[in-house]
């Protein structure tokens, strides 16, 4: 399963995701208001995320965002995802490419084509250490898919930032939070 791939391929989201019964709640915390787009670019490692209902095989996840804006009116970026899988002994590093854009404040969108609506809500970031991202959409009338990610600038941060801990404990179910492997087998 190309889990984090859902950041890229909206179609896959409907298949590979933690699906809950009910409808999406409102955004659990406000998005970052004065979002510093340029400072957000660069490399991010996935540290924690809401897992799938079944086992997934994506580890060593690293995102690189590159500013492609040509003027100040629209902020756009290129995305590159690198990941490795324990199912092939981390032998192969897979790479996926996509695009993204900023809608309003910390409301971003990413996909293989330019997104038409935000699907990447930055609830907290200090740009140089961590970012906390949320998204949710209704799959159909009875089920929804909610996602969250804690990204860090380092693959093995010494501790979880207090802001991230507080968001998770207040608004998310710890039973579904999974840690991404960033051990010796990862090649970045
Ligand atoms: C945040 O990142 C900066 C720059 O890399 C670093 O100097 C600082 O120690 C980091 N802070 C924490 C709490 O990790
Ligand atoms: C809605 O989606 C869920 C999860 O994919 C699925 O189990 C359920 O059967 C769907 N309901 C309908 C009415 O399609």
TrEMBL record:
Q: By what name is this protein known?
A: Apolipoprotein D
Record-level GO cellular component terms: cytoplasm
Q: Which organism is it from?
A: Pseudolycoriella hygida
Instruction: Print the keywords alphabetically.
Output: Signal
What are the BP-aspect GO terms?
Answer: lipid metabolic process; response to reactive oxygen species
Where along the sequence do coiled-coil regions lie?
Answer: none
Return the similarity comment.
Belongs to the calycin superfamily. Lipocalin family.
Give the range the annotation lists for the signal sequence: 1-17
